[in-house]
Design a protein that fits this description.
It is built from 9 helices and 12 strands. It is globular and about 55 Å long. Helices cover 24% and strands 33% of the residues. With 275 residues, the protein is of the alpha/beta class. The structure holds S-adenosylmethionine. S-adenosylmethionine binds next to strand 5, strand 6, strand 7 and helix 6.
Length: 275
């Protein structure tokens, strides 16, 4: 018998993948969690029926949410990841030799445990001595820290349930305060095809808090529409001012110094969302 998994990405469109195995299903305190094997994308982490990450395409998201801000900052030492319990962002952050400490604040401990067990390629850096994993609400954690981080990345689920507050103006203000005086903030901000109102609103809110605000794009096959956005707020350093000739080759599959600036060149319909 064939088994297929469908995520309804909008009420009218979905993505469907053939499933060869179910490793784990659980109702956690926060969400429905599933870890399945798909024929096309390999192991896949699903939360509340929404694809979070897959073995085949995770590199795009995790490289792009980390290396763009980390190569914009001249000397990043202390980084906070809010969400991101799969550990992929942490794995990329630790590729930067300047990093002394990376804190992961994930609300759902089950995501971390299941990722450690079934997604070792992604979660492999969570045991590194520079990493601290804190299981709590990222909103509360950020409010309680001031002037501490060089980079804060918000690697969240969609803006539903516990992640709603991660897309709010008050949260961006707390992030500004938790960053050092030259800190950078980046968040995943959904699809320009399906979440255009959200992108416009979030960009406007981040722009009201940070002197430099930029949107950039990348292509992720398992995310709604395949085109994904990130919004970056910076106190001092502009990703478009980086001398990309000086960016060293890293062990990456999507990010390089050659695409660092090009991802900020937006299609006209996306430019219109952030005008
Ligand atoms: N790359 C993914 C995507 O865009 O689909 C996100 C991956 S990561 C698994 C998202 C994580 O954010 C989830 O594990 C979820 O539990 C966590 N999360 C949601 N709200 C949170 C909050 N308020 N504080 C900390 N973590 C939160």
């Amino acid at each position: 018998m064939e088994l297929w998994y469908t995520e309804k990405q909008t009420p009218n469109v979905g993505i469907t993948c053939k499933v060869s195995k179910t490793y784990h299903t659980e109702k956690t305190d926060y969400q429905d969690l599933a870890l399945i094997e798909t024929e096309q994308f390999g192991r896949m982490l699903v939360l509340d029926g929404t694809v979070q990450t897959t073995i085949k395409d995770e590199f795009v998201y995790h490289e792009m949410i980390t290396h763009i801000p980390l190569f914009t900052h001249p000397n990043p030492k202390k980084v906070l990841v809010v969400g991101g319990g799969d550990g992929g962002a942490i794995r990329e952050i630790l590729k930067h030799p300047t990093i002394e400490k990376a804190v992961l604040v994930e609300i759902d401990g089950s995501v971390v445990e299941v990722s450690k067990k079934y997604l070792p390629e992604i979660s492999c850096a969570l045991e590194d001595s520079r990493v601290e994993v804190v299981i709590t609400d990222g909103i509360k954690y950020v409010q309680e820290h001031k002037n501490e981080f060089d980079l804060i990345t918000v690697d969240s689920t969609d803006p539903v349930g516990p992640a709603v507050g991660l897309f709010a103006l008050d949260f961006y203000k707390s992030i500004f305060e938790a960053l050092k005086e030259d800190g950078i903030f980046v968040a995943q901000t959904e699809s320009p095809f399906y979440n255009n109102d959200l992108i416009s609103r979030v960009f406007k809110d981040i722009k009201s808090v940070f002197p430099i605000t930029r949107l950039y794009l990348c292509s992720i096959p398992t995310y709604p529409s395949g085109l994904w956005s990130f919004t970056l707020g910076s106190k001092k350093y502009d990703p478009l001012e980086v001398d990309t000739g000086k960016i060293p080759e890293l062990d990456t599959k999507y990010y390089s110094g050659r695409i660092h600036k090009s991802v900020f060149a937006l299609p006209k319909f996306v430019e219109d969302l952030v005008k």
